[in-house]
Amino acid sequence: IIVGRQFGAKKSVFLRQKLQRVESGAQKRHFLHPFFHYFCRMGNTELYIGQRRMMVQQLLQKFPYDVQVMEAMNVVPRHLFLEKGMEHLAYEDKPLPIAAGQTISQPSTVALQISLSGIKRGGKVLEIGTGCGYQTAVLEQMGTRVYSVERQRELYMAAQRNMARMGYEKSLLF
């Protein structure tokens, strides 16, 4: 579906037909678009770079957020912190549902909170309510040391997985 959105409806139909032929055993070789495996291998991260840039530009049109915060938000892939099936909404400025009946804060809220805190590289932050870990990742990307507490085990486990997957050395406290 994501490949279809990126390449248009004709390519989507083409790929779907190719996959059907493979599943039916009608074709054994050369059955997928050459870029299909590339996008699967990249975890679709490359597909969202433009959306992330556009989100940052739109946020900067609304308010003069701290440059360091905007640079970090331009790097952290918000779509990887969302539930499956919600990735296409990742870079819209709205809160989205995550585990345990909670929501991930909208990007403008994250940017405003961090910008107004005045935190800079090398600073320390105590975050209460880790959620899925998106704001924690933005703070880590900025070079701050984050101590984060999450009371809901489901969110704590999700945040730990997300932070590990992102490569951030993170110790969340439960």
Question: How would you describe this protein?
Answer:
The two termini are about 35 Å apart. The model is unreliable at about 1-15 and about 20-45 (pLDDT under 50). This protein has about 170 residues and is mainly alpha-helical. It has 8 helices and 5 strands. The protein has helices at about 1-5, 10-25, 35-40, 50-60, 65-75, 105-115, 135-140, 155-165, and strands spanning about 95, 105, 125-130, 145-150, 170-174. Helix 4 (about 50-60) packs antiparallel against helix 5 (about 65-75). The protein is globular and about 35 Å long. The strands form 2 sheets. It has a 3-stranded parallel β-sheet. The protein has a two-stranded antiparallel sheet with strand order 1-2.
**Strands side by side in the biggest sheet:** 3-4-5
The number of helices is 8
The run of helices and strands is: HHHHHEEHEHEHE
Count the strands? 5
Proportion of residues in β-strands: 5-15%
Separation, N- and C-terminal Cα atoms: 37 Å
Low-confidence stretches: 1-16, 21-43
Mean pLDDT: 80
Largest sheet: 3 strands, parallel
Protein structure class: mainly alpha
Task: Sum up the overall morphology in one term.
Answer: globular
Q: Considering DSSP H and I runs of 4 or more, what fraction of the residues is helical?
A: 40-55%
Rounded to the nearest angstrom, the radius of gyration is: 19 Å
